[in-house]
Amino acid sequence: MCRFSLRLALSQLLVPALLTAGTVSAQAPEEQGGSQATQAPVEQIPLKPPAKPKTVDELLAELKRERNPQAARQIANSAMATWSESPSPTINLLMQWSAKAAAEKRNAAALDFIDRAIILKPDFVGAWNQRATLHFSMGNYKKSVSDIEKVLELEPRHFGAIAGLAGILTERGSKDAALKAWQRYLDVFPADREAQEIVAKLSEELAGQRT
After folding, report:
1. What is the pLDDT at residue 210?
2. What is the C-alpha separation between 157 and 125, in angstroms, rounded?
3. CA 158-131-179 angle, 5° bins
4. pTM, rounded to two decimals
5. What angle do CA 179, 162, 184 make, to 5 degrees?
6. How many CA atoms lie within 13 Å of 43's alpha carbon, on the beta-carbon side?
7. How far out from the chain centre does Cα 22 lie?
8. Per-residue H/E/C for 46-87
9. pLDDT above 60 for 29
């Protein structure tokens, strides 16, 4: 849920290029007159192996430490992308179809595709989060909250789902609960300036109501 998860859900999954190990060789030029010079020894230069993708745990640890908002946003987007990609090509395809249908306002088809993904892999956080986002966009807040709760049961640090929950609580006027949700969000993603401002504003409003 929230702006980054929605944007990521509607974007196509990026497939990183696979780098293969190889060598580069250098050969001395031929001499004039057609005779070939003695070849210099060939220098084998191994290519660097591709960097191993960071795990969600590593990304979230970086996100908690990072204080630069722009750098933190890049880390957050990487974490969301990791959560949104399944090892199963079939599930990834269903999620893409669902996102495309949702973008075209074909909500029934979007729900059907994402429901199938959840049936195939009920412990996949990305599918539950995408369905929560879809329900939210359709105004089905009860169903959205139910899916958010499932996301947070599977991954309590899912800051996108926490922000979605905080947004719904705010819409409902549950400011105390919304404040707690936003504070929980900032515990995972402390550099989000917008969330910091929301927490400050809610805190002031609640303090004013208590005096």
Report:
1. 74
2. 11
3. 45
4. 0.75
5. 50
6. 4
7. 32
8. CCCCCCCCCCHHHHHHHHHHCCCHHHHHHHHHHHHHHHCCCC
9. no
What pLDDT was estimated at residue 4?
A: 36
Pairwise CA distance, residues 142 & 169, whole Å: 11
Left, alpha or beta for 110 (phi > 0: left; psi -120 to 50: alpha)? Answer: alpha
The encoded tokens of residue 61 equal 């640890």
∠ CA 12-163-1, nearest 5°, is 30
Rounded to an integer, what distance in angstroms lies between the CA atom of residue 109 and that of residue 94? 11
**Least reliable range by pLDDT among 46-50, 68-72, 130-134, 193-197:** 46-50
Can you read off the two tokens belonging to residue 55? 């795990």
Segment 77-124, tens digit of pLDDT: 999 999 999 999 999 999 999 999 999 999 999 999 999 999 999 999
Q: Among 187, 141, 194, which residue's Cα sits nearest to residue 162?
A: 187
Q: Let me know how many helices (H) and strands (E) the chain has, helices first.
A: 10, 0
Q: Which residue has the tokens 């669902």?
A: 98
DSSP state of 156: T
Q: What is the pLDDT of residue 8?
A: 30
How far apart are alpha carbons 150 and 129 in whole angstroms?
9
